[in-house]
Write a structure and sequence with these properties.
The structure holds 2 protein chains of 2 kinds. Chain A is built from 19 helices and 22 strands. Chain A is α/β, with parallel strands linked by helices. By secondary structure, chain B is mainly alpha-helical. The chains are: A alpha/beta, B mainly alpha.
């Protein structure tokens, strides 16, 4: 008895060793593509946009279309179309525009079960790939009641804002494409009687119909079931603002009218095809503007002694959420009009519309030799400022008086104040009413469009791009000093600082710069985003774990810090004591960023006194009580929630194969019934009756 | 299992009456069971003095069941057709929301 037990043990262990790579049958049936980009569903007050699949995935016979001839021959091949009940069309990314998509939808109607786009190789990317509208953000533009519309993004397809009843995914990695084409050529012939490839796309979205319905369903909970299910989240991130921590207007001292200058940029973008842990695009818009903005902040911080001699405050503001109908700008203006700008200390006199002198915005900058300066309205702009700016930087070309503004956050600032209070100056890269960005709001908008070879970019590499930024920022800083302080001074910013910013934002956020300007614990939070660039995508509320906001907050506050503290040798406890006494500024103890420090002595750590505030940038539609989300006063964008996204390839057997499998199954079933019956008949074992004798 | 043949006729009438009366508390299934269970007793078995009363209870239970079936089917059809058109009211009446669909 014991020897047989030992023998069984040995046999089992040998089997376990030899069969130690157990393969589930399902793994051998499907080939899974884990690095595919997918399209999700978003909703606004009245409509839904994006793609939706069924809960168990959309599957169909795979058919690949590479060019126009194959497309036309496919549509005329009625025999092929009739041979299968559902198709997943695999389309070359160059063919993804309204003409081909609409033709597929009308010809195939319900048979079109999904679209898979592929990119053959990185150099073969299409010249234009933008799925934003031709006139971006036209629903909330400043020019709503005018008949003449300028198509700033004329190659935009507008497909992002359409609702598709099937899932759309995109393969952008070359290995995935090679694997796909290998299987396709192996299995697919034009006759329907041989085994063919099939694809299953699963990207089930929870939300439906409109933001109004979705938010209402979020809020209703039946008390019998404890768990509340959230279907969608409102779009919104953080609006961050900072300024030089000079004198504060403490109540009851009154703030002078026209004493605040706002410098604006955005920190978000969107793309039709998302990927977990993938690049989000956004190199031209908004990364270039953000880098210019941060470099200008450093320059102002550097020259803070000059700016202390005059009474105007320069506030640097980043807006998150403007890519979708300017939600963040609406929130910012809403706060300003209601007296909650700046937040934080109630003793600080609020900044209202009459206190704003002007707004300057960096928007849609690309590496172009000429930049356009748009100004509005002509009655309020300061022509000397424009002339000084153009004189300092001949690259800047002022646009004609009262010409239409490009898509920019300033449009909302002007709209909410009826353009009667302050002028707006927008610096952008446009050419004859066309944005220079070929990949506006698309994931193809990567550093290669800025002539940067990202794989060889180092922490301190000087590129054509960073020199271009240095040129713009220095001339801008010079102009600001001349206009507001009144002295002519040649200001320079170290090339190293701009190189570091470019590296951190476009290649690797976990760079020495961010560790030098943050304390230990905040710096460690960036380690999880090692080797990723700053993500520019739609953020939802509650704020996800995106590193964009801590990155901008810490760098902006460090650049605008009170530089007197660079000369003090303080330790961490003294720094904390300072913060207990000061309720307007924040004090952090950091390692110090060497290129920014002007003093000759260097210490182990520095206490940084800075002014930084962050406000939720969710549209006022979600915070006002009893606001009907289907109204159009404020935008009401939400993003649906989803669980699993998968893309799988499998083989659809021939009709004959399927019938044989079914017949064998039925035979096995009947044989097993017969065997059991025979066993029962010829043996005496009965399990139900008690054993006798 | 309660076997009606083992009970006396008074006990049978008692059970039938209890089911009939309890069914008025919005419990149509009791009426349905009453009608089906006592059908044989009411119509098929040789008559005994309480059978007439049992017969009336069975007929009334059957009518009650029919009325309830009509009400439930009508409400079901109305809800299925008008749930999305009712707006907020439709969502308040729904217990489990369809994910991903309106």
């Amino acid at each position: 008895m014991r020897s047989s037990v030992i023998f069984v043990y040995l046999l089992l262990s040998i089997l376990c060793v030899y069969c130690s790579q157990p393969k589930r049958i399902v793994d051998q049936m499907y080939i899974s593509f884990d690095h595919a980009r997918y399209c999700v569903r978003r909703l606004n007050g009245t409509h839904e946009i994006g793609c939706q699949s069924s809960a168990s995935g959309n599957s169909g016979r795979m058919y690949m279309i590479d060019n126009d001839e194959e497309f036309n021959s496919y549509l005329m091949n009625t025999k092929l179309i009739d041979s299968s009940g559902s198709f997943i069309i695999v389309l070359n990314v160059n063919l993804f525009n309204t003409y081909y998509v609409d033709k597929l939808i009308t010809s195939l109607s319900s048979k079109l079960n999904g679209l898979l786009l592929y990119l053959k190789s990185t150099p073969s990317r299409p010249e234009y790939f933008s799925h934003d509208d031709q006139c971006p953000n036209h629903r909330y533009s400043y020019y709503l009641n005018q008949t003449e519309i300028i198509n700033w993004n004329s190659k935009g397809t507008g497909l992002f804002f359409r609702s598709f009843p099937f899932p759309i995914m995109l393969i952008d990695e070359e290995d995935d494409y090679k694997q796909l084409i290998k299987f396709y050529r192996q299995f697919n012939y034009s006759q329907s009687s041989s085994p063919t490839c099939g694809l299953e796309l699963k990207s089930f979205q929870n939300a439906a119909h409109s933001s109004k319905t979705c938010i209402r369903r979020n809020d209703i909970s039946h008390s019998l079931i404890d768990l509340e299910e959230t279907f969608c989240d409102p779009v919104g991130g953080l609006n961050i603002y900072s300024k030089l921590p000079q004198s504060f207007i403490i109540i009851p001292k009154k703030r002078q009218p026209k004493s605040v200058i706002l410098i604006l940029t955005t920190t978000d973008s969107f793309q039709m095809f998302l990927k977990i842990k993938g690049t989000t695009g956004g190199a031209q818009q908004p990364a270039t503007s953000l880098i210019t903005f941060l470099a200008l902040a450093h320059l102002i911080g550097q020259e803070q002694n000059e700016f202390k001699q005059q009474d105007k405050e320069i506030i640097f503001v980043t807006l998150d959420g403007d890519a979708l109908d300017y939600s963040a700008s609406f929130k910012f203006m809403f706060d300003m009009i209601n007296g909650s700008f700046p937040i934080g200390n109630q003793n600080e006199e609020p900044i209202k519309v009459e206190h704003i002198h002007s707004i300057i915005e960096f928007q849609s900058l690309s590496l172009t030799d000429k930049l356009s300066l748009y100004t509005y309205p002509s009655s309020l702009i300061n022509q000397t400022f424009i002339d000084t700016l153009v004189h300092n930087n001949p690259m800047i070309i002022p646009m004609a008086v009262d010409s239409s503004l490009p898509p920019a956050s300033s449009q909302i600032f002007l709209r909410q104040t009826s353009s009667l209070s302050f002028p707006a100056y927008i610096l952008t890269s446009t050419n004859q009413n066309q944005l220079s960005n070929h990949y506006y709001h698309s994931f193809f908008d990567d550093p290669s469009t800025l002539s940067i070879n990202i794989s060889s970019l180092e922490y301190n590499s000087t590129t054509e791009f960073s020199q271009w930024i240095k040129n713009i920022v220095e001339s801008f800083g010079q102009t600001l000093i001349e206009s507001f302080v009144g002295i002519k001074k040649n200001v320079t910013i170290k090339q190293e600082i701009i190189n570091n910013l470019v590296y951190c934002i476009l290649k690797n956020i976990n760079c020495p710069l961010i560790h030098n300007v943050t304390n230990q614990s905040t710096g460690n939070s960036f380690d999880s985003s090692n080797e990723t660039s700053l993500p520019f995508s739609i953020n939802t509320y509650p704020v996800a774990a995106t590193p964009t906001f801590p990155f901008v907050q810490n760098i902006l506050s460090y650049f605008l810090r009170d530089r007197i503290y660079d000369t003090y040798n303080l330790n961490e406890t003294t720094c904390k004591q300072y913060s207990n006494n000061d309720s307007f500024c924040s004090y952090t103890y950091v390692g110090g960023y060497a290129p920014s420090i002007m003093s000759e002595q260097s210490f182990d750590g520095y206490c940084v006194r800075s002014y930084i505030r962050s406000v939720s940038s969710m549209s006022p539609a979600f915070t006002i009580d009893n606001y009907d989300l289907s109204q159009t006063t404020y935008p009401a964008w939400t993003e649906s929630r989803w669980t699993t996204i998968s893309l799988r390839l499998f083989v659809i057997p021939t009709r004959k194969h399927e019938i044989i499998t079914l017949v064998i199954g039925i035979l096995l079933l009947s044989v097993s019934f017969i065997v059991c019956f025979i066993l029962r008949y010829y043996t005496n074992i009965s399990l139900l009756q008690p054993s006798s004798s | 299992m309660v076997s009606l043949s083992k009970k006396s006729p008074e006990e049978r009438l008692n059970i039938c009456r209890k089911y009939y009366r309890a069914g008025f508390a919005f419990l149509p299934l009791l009426w349905l069971i009453n009608a089906i269970w006592f059908y044989k007793q009411a119509f098929k078995v040789e008559s005994y003095p309480q059978q007439a009363q049992i017969r009336t209870y069975v007929i009334r239970s059957a009518i009650g069941t029919l009325i309830w079936i009509i009400i439930i089917v009508a409400w079901n059809i109305t809800f299925q057709l008008l749930r999305t058109k009712m707006g907020p009211l439709g969502d308040f009446l729904t217990f489990v929301y369809p994910r991903g669909y309106y």
